[in-house]
Amino acid sequence: MLKIISYQKCQCGAISLTFEDGTVNHMSMATYRKLKARYDWDLRKAKRYSTTYCCDHCVNHYGIDLCECGSGEPVGKCDCGSDKPLETLGEQYDSFGAMVYNFTGARL
Fold this sequence. Notes:
The protein has 108 residues and is an alpha+beta fold.
């Protein structure tokens, strides 16, 4: 089960969720609302951090609902043709490993 221990909302309309295993995922509020019933998420039980004005969703284009190419476009609606998200729900995105792979082709 993905239990939320803390969260932070952004002025861009995204939310960043931290789960009890330390994983952080980013998504739009629309995506959060679609998933909250399925996973029985209740933000009233989680620590809320102050609203931010620049999050990984809007600045770095990390998210379970954003294209894997890093364009910031929604999954399946990007000009690159990919239908895969950059992040996977419940898994920590390895941004350093992604940079190494993009520049060298080597996986860490």
